[in-house]
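LOG
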Amino acid sequence: MQNGKNIIVRYATDDDVKYAEHICQLIFESAKARNTGIAKREPSYIAQKMTSGKAVVAIDGDKLVGFSYIECWEHGDFVATSGLIVDPEYRRMGLAARIKEKTFQLARERFPYAKLFSITTSLAVMKLNTRMGYQPVTLDNLTHDDEFWKGCEGCVNYDILQRNNRRVCLCYGMLYDPRQAEQHKPSRWAPYVMTVKNVFNKIFRIK
């Protein structure tokens, strides 16, 4: 049983291209097992994400056990975090969260002003997104770039997306807007204000 202690989660490099076919196989097997829509990806597409500095890999020794990537749309106004996959033997050890957080970090570093979005059918991914500040939205709040939605053509649920004019599908949309996140960011003085308030309430027994 793997414990995940020796797994390295890092940004992908040119040397990781050798894992592209294996990643595509993991994506295909996951889609088949869940009978839901994970869009099909070609090895050349995965390799391009690695060589352009837009991917994250999880490595155990010389074995790839997890992957995710980012893609920018509408001239960098939107960035998608996509393709999160974990080898079945390495699940339930927090690896998906580590990959997701690293991918989020990569997107924020490369495109600090972009709106980040994710579409998923996974409750676990939705929970991870929420923890990082994503908000649930209908799909029409995401990029309108036709090239992005063409990537869904290999999904078994593509007809549902088309019938609903790309507004709703079996996937859920989630959006992180850095401007809104900054507005709702707690003040650095917030802990001190709460401490003073708690002391004040105790002294005067305010309920």
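LOG (cont.) second protein
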Amino acid sequence: MELGMIGLGRMGAQMAERIQRGGHRVRGYSRRRETVEAAAARGLSATTDLDELVASLAPPRIVWMMVPAGAPTEATLDALRARLSPGDLLVDGGNSYYRDTIRRARTLTEAGLRFVDVGTSGGIWGLREGYSMMVGGSPEDVARLRPILEALAPAPDAGWGHVGGPGAGHFVKMVHNGIEYGLMQAYAEGFAILGAKAEFRLDLAQVAEIWRRGSVVRSWLLDLTADVLRHPEELARIAPVVADSGEGRWTVTEAIDLEIPAPVITLALQQRLRSRETDPLTEKLLAAMRQQFGGHAVERE
């Protein structure tokens, strides 16, 4: 089987490499010449010409996109819709908002194209470990894509599944990322508490290693945390600023729409937003109010 891979960033290139290891042919595309050259160094065939990519694939084509959510995905879909033929299958493996995915699936179907959404988890470790994939689309389209999914997964029958119709894959991945926010926040807070107990002089890396074996809180995230704690000098150079990809926000919005309480995920998102404030007005106002009503002292910058 062959497919085109749109987007040869680190994850896209690694996915293409794993697909090729599974015995399939991959032809990549990126707008950036240096990205194409980097892909070639990994043994991947790639081009900066979208027309050339489409022409190199035998119909009915399969084109897998790994591009940022939002406008980049929309623009890529528009460009491909103008070049592909009825029966060609488009796959969005990025972190698109599931409501956008449902709309796009409808539009592409009306144009005679097929569409599958794949919520993809595994990050930079996927090349070695395989990817977890939550797949949305029609049974027929997913069956057509199955050999590629089996090549990407940790095992042909594990780590991936067809979870529902168009949009379902991205919906499940959205909630997956929301859960991830909560788990990460809990680990970070727990180790901060341990580190603050100065009288015990706890070795945080040692504690993480203890928990990694047999503990009920063991996980891959804890494995990664343990690795970070083994290098405190590198951790000390990291700014306390945490970005978010948007999926945590979407998960919180969905929880509100469904009237499902999700305090842990919501607070984890809020903490990330708080980490990016360089001049927090909230705390300044709190200090000023205490001074106003109680005469309490305030600290000056």
